[in-house]
Amino acid sequence: MILLLFAWFNWKVIKSDNFTVIHKPGYRWEAEEAIYNLEFYKEEVWHLTTNRYRNLPVVIEDIGTAANGYADPLFRNIHLFTYPPNPGFEIDATRDWYRSVGIHEYTHICHLTRTSDLARPLNLLFGFPFLPNLYSPPWVIEGITVLSESRFPFEGRLNDGLFDSYLGATKDTPPSILTATYLPLQFPYYMGAYLYGGEFFRFLDTAYGEERIGKFFEEYGGCFWAPFGLLFPALSLDLAARLSFGCDFPALFTRWQQKIRDDFKEYEVIGLRLTDDGWFKSYLTAYRERLYYFHSYYQKVEARKIIPIYEVVEYDPRERKKRVLVRTLSPIIAPFRFDGDRLYFLVQDLTRGGNNVYLRGCRITGSLYEFDLKEKKIRRVGTADIRAFAILDGKILVAQDRRHHFGSDVYLDDELLLETDLLIGELMVEGGRIFLIGRKNHETWNIYELDPQLKTITPIRRSSWVLANLNPSPYGPLYTANFDRRYRLYLLDLNTNLDYRLTENGYANFGIIHNDSLYFLGLNRDGFDLYLLPLNRVRFNFPAEPLIPPEPDPRSFPLTIQQGSYFDILATMTPSLRLPIFVPLDTTLKSWLLGGVVAGADATGENTYLAFIGYNQLQESLALYLITNSRFCSPVEVDLFYRHNHDLSLSFDYPLLITTRPGLNRIYPFLRLRWFDRLRRREAFPGLRIGIGLIDWDLTTSGGVRIEPEIDRLAPELSGNLSHLLWGGEVKLDFYWYYDPDSIPIKIRGDETQAKTGERLMFGYTHPILRIRKGSWNPNIFIEDLSSELFFDLARVGVETIYSAGIILRIEVGLGLGLIRLRPGVGIVVTKEGRV
Known about the structure:
Elements: H1 2-8, E1 12-15, E2 19-23, H2 28-49, E3 56-61, E4 69-72, E5 77-81, H3 97-112, H4 119-126, H5 138-149, H6 162-169, H7 177-182, H8 192-208, H9 210-220, H10 237-245, H11 249-263, E6 272-273, E7 280-287, E8 290-302, E9 305-316, E10 321-328, E11 337-339, E12 342-352, E13 362-372, E14 377-384, E15 388-392, E16 395-401, E17 408-412, E18 415-420, E19 423-430, E20 433-439, E21 446-451, E22 456-461, E23 467-471, E24 478-481, E25 488-493, E26 498-501, E27 509-514, E28 517-524, E29 527-534, E30 538-540, E31 562-563, H12 566-570, E32 577-584, E33 592-601, E34 607-616, E35 621-630, E36 637-643, E37 647-653, E38 657-658, E39 663-676, E40 681-694, E41 697-708, E42 713-726, E43 729-748, E44 751-776, E45 781-797, E46 800-815, E47 820-822, E48 825-831
Parallel strand pairs: 2-3, 3-5
Antiparallel strand pairs: 1-2, 1-31, 4-5, 6-29, 7-8, 8-9, 9-10, 11-12, 12-13, 13-14, 15-16, 16-17, 17-18, 19-20, 20-21, 21-22, 23-24, 24-25, 25-26, 26-30, 27-28, 28-29, 32-33, 33-34, 34-35, 35-36, 36-37, 37-39, 38-39, 39-40, 40-41, 41-42, 42-43, 43-44, 44-45, 45-46, 46-47, 46-48
Helix pairs in contact: 2-3, 3-5, 5-8, 8-9, 9-10
């Protein structure tokens, strides 16, 4: 037990002049990559945001095979995940992961904590409520980080080409300021904050210059009244824009829209569109007269409830028909591969054993599946941290990231074939040869060949631009490249060793040559779709330009690194919120609740707290409320709530089983300890939460027993909900059963009663019925969709049965630059007695 306790304190800390990097044992290489890059490039961020934020905690977390990171401006830290991204529908112009993700998240902190004028002392006194830049729309928050990460040649989303292609595809109806702010459920949805914001800030940078952008952050950072300006941006956000750019944001968006029309007037969406369901498509490939691709999209089933859908689709080019072969519960994360009549695909999975707090010690990984195209049967082959795979002579060739080092380990079945400093993102077997997409650190994705006999990797095509998304063809590998920020398809003819360009205008990715026609994934305003063009090979002289000029290696510059300790983590727990509270307790205004709220967290995210401490003049008593959450003993999560002399509760939650595979995929034992009734009664509530997830179905159930030994009280209860996607909506069944020596109330819509025992069933069907998608900038409001719910509620309480039925209409309302989301509703309910 003592050894386990010390393991919970096993964070390691290294420090420089401006950053404190916190990591688990064994992750020193990742920590140094982060601290060297942040120190080397910090002044780029300082200049862009006009904020020199220092002494920032940076936490390194290994969440498995998912590339991401996040910034926490409230508690002032950033978290960097250790897995670099892979090519896909976005071919990924990332050359140095720790530079890219570090600069992106550090830009968030420097931007969102920028204060000036009176807001600065208010922030120092009271904390994060007085961070005006925090009250910004998503296209501002993400847009400046996309601009920041794209300041380096051939790197960042603005140097990729995908965002440009989407603006070209929507040039006739460019995004409005309300669409960019509220991101309604339409492509590009969540990606819109990055796409619209990044492109808009590039426009500002080109038209007005970086200094004006910094001036805007400074001006808005002085608007201490920004929370009150959320409903009327003219009072704060637009005021800062006028002082910085000479006009407000609606006018700036109008200018940007005109620039889109001018810049992309020659752009056209090419080819014959074969599918019309848009959203996200990737990994198009061909096998035996059929095409296959991965399709993911979002389905709204009721107000503010959106379900992701993941499908493996088979397309028949002769009949021009598609059918869904397989639905999965999570995304597919690598290209399809075939062996005989078996289709192999890699699905993102979740397992135990991660070195992180973010996922409570779980980790994202990959599960490899085999689908028999004849028998239509599916089986899981195995689960591992696979980045790329292929089938070689009936064996599975796999590339996995090297631990604590840049590069890959290549396995043939379970045998280690070779180790390489090349990060391998794709593997493809064609004509007995193995081609791969890989990159060295600080370089882009390029084409190589692997010789399994000699255990060597040889460059085939290298460029400063990205080469990715290989597909076999009768002539040689097809690949996508983003020369001059345009996604085009190319062919490497193995017979002549010559390259050919297959597309010119528009966006084209994942090319397939089938019956002398070119199939590919193109881009339109609805998202990605399957397109067809006649095969036209144009001789292409592969650019002879030199590779990216050698950049200064941040590690080659002198940097003093000091060793820290766990006390550096404890130091981050000082309150980030310090707010006085004055609340009248009667109409005479003579009695008040006087006190203050404090909140804080340590940088790792293991411990957070919020407390109110004050004095109740009416009752002449101390008022104390305390809420804490701890993942210190992760994966066990502990929550505590305390109200002075009234209530105390302590809960423990443990993820015994968690996965994204269909079937039983969630088991959470829990224990709730409670002292209530002015602390005179004690209750223990052990229980179990179980989840079963199937395609289109989900069941979550929870059961336990409330135990009070002093009064021999045993009160079992069981609750849960079952949902099923149907006809574009969702069928819901909520159930609840209990027995309790205490007579307790039970409610249905429109009625209520109470007894010692009872059951309740609530049946409903929800469905969106109308798209509205209208709003205004001043006042700032957006109406999205109208949804309905038909319901029937039934309860048996003791010997009495009650029921009700009705309909509810709910509308999605957004307010305050997208920071406030509501779903007000109106409905009619008829009870058993006929009351309406």
